[in-house]
Design goal:
Helices cover 48% and strands 12% of the residues. The chain has 346 residues and is an alpha+beta fold. The termini are far apart.
Length: 346
Amino acid sequence: MAVDLPEPIRHEVNRLLATVDPSAGKPQRFTKLKGGANNQVFRVETSNSQFCLKWYFTHPSDPRNRLAHEYRFLKHAWSLGIRNIPQPLGVSPALQIAVFSYLSGRPFSSEPVRLEHIEQAMQFLRQLNQSWESETALALPIASEACFTWQEHIATVQERIDRLKNIPIESDLHQNAADFVRLQLLPRWEIERATVEHRFSKENRELGQSCNRVPRIISPSDFGFHNAILSDDGNTYFIDFEYAGWDSPVKAMCDFFHQPQVPISLKYFDEFVEVIEYLFPNNLSLRDVIDSIFPIYGIKWCCILLNEFLPVHESRRSFSQGSTPSSERLKNQLRKAELKLASIQL
């Protein structure tokens, strides 16, 4: 759908493109693309080329700088020679916009995730972490909700649980969601939290210390095939790095296998753990740490599925898609959260 953007943004896009590629010509058409849950994304067409424009969401109650995280991450990845990502071309922090190369392909929601795709994801993670001392690597921010101790893993999920305790009762669906949180999600969280606390407590002090000593990696954050495009030639392009930065490999691993939008079979779990262990060959307890933390990330993703019921998420949805979540979408999100909770093994 072609759209007419505000003049300051059109003017800035024209300036950025003229700097990057003077031969591209002026923007002639802006087409809004589907899929962005937080931001507005457009295909920019000129007389002889096309680009991607991203307009980032900001909100007083959500101080995360999505633009800075994504643009710095892509600058670093591009400097390493990684090419299955959008190329960062220009940025305007004042207007919260950035211009990238345009990637053509289709979402993984219509494609099964196969071994070759998993291998491309593992290779991407290895490439990202081939140089931790470069100027672009050191300039990267801490990832959103980064966790470097087992206590921080728990605290991150607890914060999401606490927010869901205050779902505003605006409809019967909101009441159903609040009841699910109170009667099912919260009791299960108490069990999982107690299990992790016991596992890393004084009785298992060595494992707890090992968890807190896990080195940092450069993480795409929110990493998975829900944030990927499959090209016609079979290559996987990774996108959406607005939460990326320095983080724990444990969190990256748990999020990768728990995100529900494009499920990934646990039959690939061991191979992915081997990639993490390859990065840190001297950390012999890493597998035990991952196994211990893994279940609470299922709870975290239940919470993420229920974000639609919270006011700040409604604001993001309104910005990115021009509307608040419909009753049908709210119903689907609640059902997905119920199924996700049921899938977590005790």
